[in-house]
Amino acid sequence: MSNVTVCARFRPLSSKEKRDHGDVICIRSIDAENFVFKDEKDEDFTFCFDRVFYPGSEQVDVYEFLAQPIVRDAVNAINGTIITYGQTGAGKTYSIEGPSILGCDEQKKEGLLPRVVGELFECLKSADEMIKYTVKLSMVEIYMEKVRDLFDLSKDNLHIKEGKVQGIFLSGVTEISILDPEEALRSLSSGIANRAVGETLMNMASSRSHCVYIFTVRQESTKDRRMKTGKLILVDLAGSEKVEKTGAEGRVLEEAKTINKSLSALGNVINALTGSTPGKVNHIPYRDSKLTRILQDALVSPPLLCPHQITIIFYQKPTVFSSYRVETHELHYFVVAHQAL
Ligand SMILES: Nc1ncnc2c1ncn2[C@@H]1O[C@H](COP(=O)(O)OP(=O)(O)OP(=O)(O)O)[C@@H](O)[C@H]1O
Ligand SMILES: [Mg+2]
């Protein structure tokens, strides 16, 4: 069975979108895996994913389908990665964080992070008593092609290294030991406060960096001292954007160019993986960006070091008014990934 799951999520229309363009949306549901995308010329394109989350979907639906199994795997020493990809303002950060990490006013709006943390500690409560677990958390952002430690801002250019046993790792990254969900949420909230966020015409709080959350679950058997590790990685990518639409200039323009370049590098890696002929080793350009290098172990197909589950969620605004050519192109690209990886 493939270790790769590819889903699509559409957020509800915002009140501004409704005011400006009415209730028209560019997608029509067929079922939980297929939808029709209508372009500006009223032409229909049908797409198929492992799961489609329509505008009425709840955060819990996304969590249960794609994150819960990965959390349970991490407790059983199986690595897993969740990557959010898509246009700026399409809802990636909302899915990962919810409206706020601490003190979200409605439980149903809670994002993946608080749910992951809750489930992780629930799993550990009911785990084998002969095993001692420790959970560590690291948080970095890739900003302007530099890896910054969000728990220690003095570490603003971490090096990505590769070891025979541990695979890809961030040399010297801060790892916070977390003992309970409340402590984990406080740490996440302080890391998020350090992340680069800026206002653009497309999104009031646009992520200007790719953010990588790494939960490491170590287990040690009290019988024979054997150690095992499961990593759970969540990646909130900065959105792809058309600079003329975001009104970018100066620093914001430089950020946008760097973001688009690293997203292209991710696309090239996925293309190289999906285009490879069985039995023939293709060159996969992992080293072309920090993002693809950090995600190298997750994106290797089939995984080499140990089992690794990966989920890519493609985010799309439900409006018909943005440039459909880019959207259908990107959608096609994820459909290929869905079929081939
Ligand atoms: N499922 C949802 N339900 C309600 N509101 C949502 C949903 N998804 C996103 N939003 C709202 O849409 C806006 C943009 O979302 P968000 O910041 O998550 O986009 P993004 O994809 O992370 O964009 P960027 O790439 O610029 O960081 C926010 O105001 C957010 O609250
Ligand atoms: Mg964001």
UniProtKB/TrEMBL annotation:
It comes from Tetracentron sinense. GO terms for molecular function: ATP binding; microtubule binding; microtubule motor activity. Residues 3-340 form the Kinesin motor domain. Pfam families: Kinesin. SMART domains: KISc. Keywords: ATP-binding, Coiled coil, Microtubule, Motor protein, Nucleotide-binding. This is Kinesin-like protein. InterPro entries: Kinesin-like_fam, Kinesin_motor_CS, Kinesin_motor_dom, Kinesin_motor_dom_sf, P-loop_NTPase.
